[in-house]
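User: Can you model how tryptophan sits in this protein?
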Amino acid sequence: MNQQSKKTILSGMRPTGKLHLGHWTGALENWVALQEEYHNYHLVADYHALTTSLDTSELHQNTIDMVVDWLAGGIDPARSPVFRQSQIKEHTELHLIFSMLITKSRLERNPSIKEQVRDLEIEHITYGHLGYPVLQAADILLYRGALVPVGEDQLSHVEITREIARRFNTTWDEVFPEPEPKLTRFARLPGLDGKDKKMSKSMGNALLMSDGPEEVAQKLRKAPTDVKKVRRNDPGRPDVCLIFTYHEKFNPDAVPEVREGCESGALGCVDCKKRCGAAISEFLAPHIERRRQYEEHPERVEEILRDGEARARTTAQETMSAVRDAMKLG
Ligand code: TRP
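Assistant: Here's the modeled complex, given as structure tokens:
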């Protein structure tokens, strides 16, 4: 496929620092696979981070830690620009224009934001936080992204992006595509504290992509398994056990054997966890090796960001010039 016919994908994450295995299965794995077939842009949503915290003291380090995990996971910065939203001022310009194309009541009906307000117990939402999806629309449409790989929780934001694109196009001129969400397949990975809870750093139940074999083994040792399997020889129920889910994801070849051993009682939880930990660490080894190289040369990460930002900026400026032409601004 030549460059011209490739579709553009815009993916982004808020900079939360080092990534965990839930980020891998929910997003990053997909991004890495998609970069073969599409034109990718990988955005660090550092302005979006301000919607829920004004403490910026760790923003830079969190950005670097996250970008290193992207690179260690296989994002190729030569093919796909990696950049910070805050370094490209066109995001703020387009955000302002888009903010005129959507009503306050429409934004107040957005279920993702409603949920966040409830979970974080926010009493009075800021103007900027309410506009979260408007900024996300600017992120996507500045690069004329046709596809957005997201989890289910982001679908309502992509819907708002589509509405804004339509509104712009019908008011002035056909400048924007109406982007489609691209749902990720294996969206949810349970955390270390139980099969019904999502892995998340703030819950303290995460296996980090940067965890070495010792840390992985130690974290798994404490994880709960089937409560009905008390002694080694008791039969277990793999389908209620989160360790089995990890086997399915990171040790697929051994799954039939693990299931059989668990159900018959021949395989005890201690051994099962050891095997699971070994498989996870084997999977992580190349990531950790690549991470080490970037840690030894932090200037490379800065360089990758500067280069990605220069390339992203060029595209963003082209789009803004089409926007101004369509609107007859200036
Ligand atoms: N809202 C996304 C998240 O919380 C992050 C994000 C910001 C994003 N801008 C984006 C995702 C553009 C996709 C496209 O994960």
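A couple of observations from the model: Residues 224 and 252 are 21 Å apart (CA to CA). The pocket of tryptophan is lined by residues 10-14, 43, 45, 48, 136, 139-140, 148, 150, 154 (CB under 6 Å).
User: Helpful, thanks.
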